[in-house]
């Protein structure tokens, strides 16, 4: 693993503050929009809905910019996705250009933030997935996802076991209100031998002998609350542990686990790779 330069370390120390400042700006525009254009004052009292709406505005504006430099480990991995897939939280579809459309038989994008759907459909078409890609206005929670899939006729008799060859979750588990429950649902929906493909920013792995940094760990704690409020996302979630404990304790639900930490020294360490469900 390569050590960061002082400049790299310093820039990652302030990157979360920069993203938070962009989100605050979009929050101000959201409030002005809700009060003066939509005139929907009730929305001001529904904080989760307001946060989701403000995030949609933020992601519509900056999603492509925040997706411009995806690491090669991720783009290579996404180009191998195949079969019938569930694309969880695709946002505006900025990752779809990395998919190989010829390898995909059918895709379902479950995206609960409805103000992202228009751009998502546009990007699916641009990536050559137009006919094969169905956008569902649902979240990954079972009470939302299962009826949405059933309505599409994907679940035989509403069963919901072993449907998908692959499930893709990119920068999304940190946004879900109940990530463990959602992962359990994804596990059930995955065929035995199927792959869960992921790329997630996670808690700094300091103390785990994989190049974590105490300083970045502390910085994550400083940023965690404004990041959660304005970006609607958990900056330091232990997603690796959640993935390991899906389908059984300590990785026993998976026949193979290939996960690596990128930028482990930073405030945005990222876990990239895949897990194969036991047959
Ligand atoms: C940071 S964006 C990532 C978008 C896309 N995956 C990418 O990497 O370009 C996080 C996405 O997760 C979605 N999301 C939020 N809550 C969710 C939930 N409960 N289930 C599924 N997706 C969710 C958001 O609407 C948003 O599109």
From TrEMBL:
Superkingdom as given in the UniProt entry: Eukaryota
Xref: InterPro entries: SAM-dependent_MTases_sf, Thiol_S-MT
Keyword list, A-Z: Membrane, Methyltransferase, Transferase, Transmembrane, Transmembrane helix
A Pfam family this chain is assigned to: Methyltransf_23
Annotated transmembrane regions: 12-36
GO annotation terms (biological process): methylation
Single Gene Ontology MF annotation: methyltransferase activity
Keyword flag Repressor: no
PANTHER family assigned: METHYLTRANSFERASE LIKE 7A (PTHR45036:SF1), METHYLTRANSFERASE LIKE 7B (PTHR45036)
Name used for this protein in its record: S-adenosyl-L-methionine-dependent methyltransferase
Organism: Phyllosticta citribraziliensis
